[in-house]
C-alpha cells in the first residue's frame, strides 16, 4: 500500500528503472495549495494498448513480477490524485519513454502525508540502474537539484553505509533549508 506521496514517487521511479531508462528525472513542485510531481524517463515506453492496460489493477505484463497477476502502482497513483482533488496523467511513446504527472491539493482532507523524503530520495538515487537520475525539488519557488552522477563523484560512490548516511543527511539539510526559506 502507498501510505505517503514518497511511496507513490518511489513506485513510479522503480517502474522507470525496470523499463530500462538511462535518464530518469523527478520534479516535485509544492506550494501552499498544490503538490505536483512529474517523472520523465527514456525507457521502453508503452503503446496505447499497454498504457490502457496499465491502468487496470488486475493487469501485469508478467515480466516485473512473474508471481503476481496485479499491478497496483498506477491505479493507486490515479486514485490518490483524484481523491485529493487533483488528477494524474500518462504520456508514453513506445521506444521513447514515459512521462507520469500527479497533481493534488495540499490542503485536501484526503491528501496523503509527504513522507520521509530524505530516505526515499536516497533510495531512488541508489536504485540499481545505469545512467542518470535527477531530482528537482521546488518548494514555494525555491529549490535544489540532486544528480546521481554528481553525488556519486562527490561521495566516491553511493552504496557504502557511510555514504548512504551522508547522502540522507545532505538531502535532509536541503529540505530543512527549503522549509526555513519558505
Structural class: alpha+beta
**Run of helices and strands:** HEEHHEEHEEHH
Poorly predicted regions are 65-71
Termini separation (Å)?
31 Å
Shape: globular
Count of discrete alpha- or pi-helical segments spanning 4 or more residues: 6
Spatial arrangement of strands, main beta sheet? 3-4-2-1-5-6
- Rounded mean pLDDT is 89
DSSP strand count: 6
Largest sheet: 6 strands, mixed
Kindly state the percentage of residues in helix. 25-40%
Task: Specify Rg, calculated over alpha carbons.
Answer: 16 Å
* Strand portion: 25-35%
Write the layout of secondary structure elements.
Elements: H1 5-18, E1 23-30, E2 34-41, H2 48-54, H3 73-83, E3 87-93, E4 97-105, H4 117-125, E5 132-139, E6 142-147, H5 148-155, H6 161-181
Parallel strand pairs: 1-5
Antiparallel strand pairs: 1-2, 2-4, 3-4, 5-6
Helix pairs in contact: 1-4, 4-6
Amino acid at each position: 500500500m502507498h501510505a505517503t506521496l514518497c511511496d507513490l514517487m518511489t513506485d513510479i521511479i522503480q517502474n522507470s528503472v525496470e523499463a530500462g531508462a538511462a535518464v530518469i528525472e523527478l520534479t516535485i513542485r509544492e506550494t501552499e495549495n498544490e503538490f505536483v510531481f512529474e517523472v520523465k524517463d527514456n525507457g521502453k515506453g508503452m503503446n496505447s494498448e499497454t498504457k490502457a492496460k496499465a491502468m487496470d489493477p488486475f493487469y501485469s505484463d508478467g515480466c516485473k513480477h512473474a508471481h503476481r497477476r496485479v499491478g497496483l502502482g498506477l491505479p493507486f497513483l490515479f486514485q490518490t490524485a483524484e481523491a485529493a482533488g487533483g488528477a494524474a496523467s500518462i504520456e508514453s511513446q513506445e521506444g521513447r519513454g514515459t512521462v507520469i504527472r500527479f497533481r493534488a491539493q495540499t490542503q485536501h482532507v484526503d491528501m496523503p502525508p509527504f513522507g520521509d523524503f530524505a530516505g526515499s530520495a536516497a533510495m531512488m538515487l541508489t536504485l540499481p540502474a545505469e545512467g542518470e537520475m535527477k531530482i528537482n525539488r521546488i518548494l514555494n519557488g525555491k529549490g535544489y537539484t540532486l544528480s546521481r552522477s554528481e553525488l556519486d563523484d562527490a561521495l566516491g560512490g553511493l552504496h557504502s553505509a557511510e555514504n548512504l548516511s551522508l547522502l540522507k543527511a545532505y538531502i535532509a539539510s536541503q529540505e530543512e533549508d527549503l522549509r526555513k526559506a519558505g
